[in-house]
Amino acid sequence: MEILQKDDTTLRVLMKGTDRCYASAIRRIAIAEVPVMAIDDVIIVDNTSIVYDELIAHRLGLIPLTTDLSRFVLPKECSCESEQGCSNCRVMLVLDVVAGDKVRTVFSGDMISDDDDTKPISDQIPILKLAPGQKIKLEAYAKLGKGKDHAKWQATTVAVVKDVDQNKDALELYIESVGSLKAEEIFSRALEILGKKVDDLKTTAEGLASRG
Ligand SMILES: [Zn+2]
After folding, report:
1. Which of 37, 184, 207, 211 is buried most deeply by CB count within 10 Å?
2. 42 C-alpha vs ligand 1 centroid, how far in Å?
3. CA dihedral sign, ordered 34, 37, 43, 48
4. How far is CA 77 from CA 74, 91, 135, 185, in A?
5. What domains sit in the chain, N to C, each tagged with a CATH number?
């Protein structure tokens, strides 16, 4: 494997003599199984805007959040075993905005996170508009999740496998990140997850063989 190009959000990897199944498996895992943070629960404390609570919660879920996979675990794998979550599996972000005497657009940058590593990837994503005097106050809870459970937890916008040179049996894997993780990290996590799947399969196969 050879890295052809990389920056924070994109990665091109050349794979020589690699089975297409293997490259496709990495691609699928990058899309569906590498976890990222997204807002999952929203508690609306006060909303005098004309936008429905459900719509605001939906929009918040789609805002990509920066993700530190070394610090957080999936809620179902967390030792707290609590519905509410703890500091290892959950981050709270607060939105509390009142419009003055002008119409005010509320942006992702108005959200205040209680964790510096978990915040919107951009301050400029619009959430809703407030007419003069209207207000929005809410608590949003972000958790790790996987793209296979909901699109809001997808780490990639694009992940494709292309033929480079059929004679030389070379493939190119292209990954583009939504911005929560570096493209390179998505790739290395996908490899890790694939490695674990292979190990699990081996263990299962050995178990079956010893029983036979
Ligand atoms: Zn927890």
Report:
1. 37
2. 18
3. negative
4. 5, 16, 37, 21
5. 2-33+155-211 (3.30.1360.10), 37-146 (2.170.120.12)
SS3 call for 134: coil
Judge contact between 48 and 135, C-beta under 8 A. yes
State in Å: Cα 84 to ligand 1 middle: 8
Structure tokens at 65: 């959040």
State pTM to two decimals.
Answer: 0.91
How far is the C-alpha of 31 from the C-alpha of 43, rounded, in Å? 29
Give me ligand 1 centre to Cα 142, in Å: 12
How far apart (Å, rounded) are the C-alpha atoms in residues 170 and 23? 11
Ligand 1 is a single-atom ion; what residues have CB below 5 A from it?
Answer: 78, 80, 85-86, 88-89
User: For the segment 72-129, what is each residue's pLDDT rounded down to a tens digit?
Assistant: 999 999 999 998 899 999 999 999 999 999 999 999 999 999 999 999 999 999 999 9
What is the 145 CA–ligand 1 centroid distance (Å)?
13
CA of 153 to the centre of ligand 1 (A): 18
pLDDT tens, position by position, 41-57: 999 999 999 999 999 99
Residue with tokens 């997850």: 193
* Ligand 1 center to 127 CA (angstroms): 28
C-alpha 23 – ligand 1 centre gap (Å) = 33
